[in-house]
């Protein structure tokens, strides 16, 4: 491993050890130490290397901007975090915990990049046992003899929720390494490490950053012997495969994280209101909403072409891929050839932003009426 700050170096987990509410923690976490004249924000260091014999040595293994974000996210999830170049970079590093030829138990529908990566893992000789995300008994049965459990809850875009506590407890009993993609729930709704998960992965691109201006990922492991050993392997993967983040992107992500509490509160309230209204809309055949969070999906009362017309007709909602930004986004996921066929062709994924809910509603209502009226 390259010299420099080791992953095993102590990083304090502030959120656990203070009685602060999470909104307060988010504002203060990962700041430089307060002393006379100290800056309020961690500096962005545009440097590839450091003079010898200090805490940091070469910027591929670590740098102070990353450490600030990692400290903040580590505390939020209740563990030790690493920043990666993208969500997929983090997912690749976590999936590397299972050796070639191993067996992974995973939901039969996940974020399509993860789904594709698992397919590549199978092509290389690995085995993936796929279970429906809500089929707890199916997971319990599949875990025997598995090497790695992969969960995503809620799933993107079907919004299926897995009984994390039950499935993770069984994985732990059997010694199966478990990974949870916590991108959609965020640590504000779900903290899988507290339920026994070994690794949490995030697309930091989404809610944690929140402004659709960076692509980043993260892994978090518990601060235990087992967690630190896994974290060391993930750290080694990041350093040696080299999928690392630029310092400016991480600075922006940390700035975005400051307002996660406010953004998620507003977006979640908007999503709950829209889910209730959409359930009564003549243009909507089914609403998929897990009951909390800022994401939902609808199946329009029409075919794929009708769903496409709805996306084309919105003015406030941004027709685009991705999610978790301050702006509301709408997309028909099956327009991507890589999307699993279990996702209905007329399904629209809605990432609800922080705009005024009445503007979101009137725009969506009009787009649904226009899009479906042309049938
Ligand atoms: C977007 C997303 C990813 C991939 O993250 P990138 O930052 O785009 O690489 C992984 N998992 C989920 C659930 C996502 O929504």
From TrEMBL:
GO terms for biological process: cysteine biosynthetic process via cystathionine; transsulfuration. The keyword Oxidoreductase does not apply. Its cofactor is pyridoxal 5'-phosphate. GO terms for molecular function: cystathionine gamma-lyase activity; cystathionine gamma-synthase activity; pyridoxal phosphate binding. Keywords: Pyridoxal phosphate. It comes from the Bacteria. The modification N6-(pyridoxal phosphate)lysine is found at residue 206. One of its GO terms (cellular component) is cytoplasm. It holds the Pfam family Cys_Met_Meta_PP. The keyword Membrane does not apply. Belongs to the trans-sulfuration enzymes family. This is Cystathionine gamma-synthase. It comes from Intrasporangium oryzae NRRL B-24470.
């Amino acid at each position: 491993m390259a010299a420099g700050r080791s992953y095993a170096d102590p990083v304090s987990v502030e959120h656990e050890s203070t009685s602060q509410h999470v909104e307060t923690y988010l504002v203060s976490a990962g700041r430089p130490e307060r002393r006379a004249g100290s800056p309020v924000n961690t500096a962005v260091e545009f440097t590839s290397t450091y003079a010898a014999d200090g805490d940091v040595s070469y910027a591929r293994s670590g740098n102070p901007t990353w450490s600030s974000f990692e400290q903040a996210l580590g505390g939020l999830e209740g563990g030790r975090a690493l920043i990666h170049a993208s969500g997929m970079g983090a997912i690749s590093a976590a999936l590397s915990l299972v050796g070639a030829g191993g067996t992974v138990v995973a939901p039969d529908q996940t974020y399509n990049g993860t789904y594709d990566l698992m397919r590549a893992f199978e092509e290389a000789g690995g085995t993936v046992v796929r279970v429906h995300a809500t089929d707890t008994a199916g997971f319990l049965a599949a875990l025997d003899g598995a090497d790695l459990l992969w969960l995503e809850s809620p799933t993107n875009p079907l919004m299926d929720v897995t009984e994390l506590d039950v499935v993770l407890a069984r994985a732990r009993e059997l010694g199966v390494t478990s990974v949870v993609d916590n991108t959609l729930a965020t640590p504000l709704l779900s903290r899988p490490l507290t339920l026994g998960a070994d690794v949490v992965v995030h697309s930091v691109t989404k809610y944690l950053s929140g402004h659709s201006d960076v692509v980043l990922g993260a892994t978090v492991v518990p601060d235990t012997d087992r967690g630190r050993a896994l974290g060391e392997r993930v750290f080694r993967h990041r350093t040696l495969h080299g999928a690392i983040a630029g310092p400016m992107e991480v600075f922006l992500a940390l700035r975005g994280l400051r307002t996660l509490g406010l953004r998620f509160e507003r977006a979640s309230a908007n999503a709950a209101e829209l889910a209730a209204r959409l359930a009564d809309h003549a243009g909507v055949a089914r609403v998929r909403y897990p009951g909390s969070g800022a994401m939902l999906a609808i199946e329009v009362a029409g075919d794929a072409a009708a769903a496409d017309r709805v996306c084309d007709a919105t003015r406030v909602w941004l027709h685009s891929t991705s999610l978790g930004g301050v702006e509301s986004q709408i997309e028909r996921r099956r327009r991507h050839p890589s999307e699993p066929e279990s996702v209905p062709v007329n399904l629209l994924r809605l990432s609800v932003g922080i705009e005024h809910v009445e503007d979101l509603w009137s725009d969506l209502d009009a787009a649904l009426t226009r899009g479906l009226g042309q049938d």
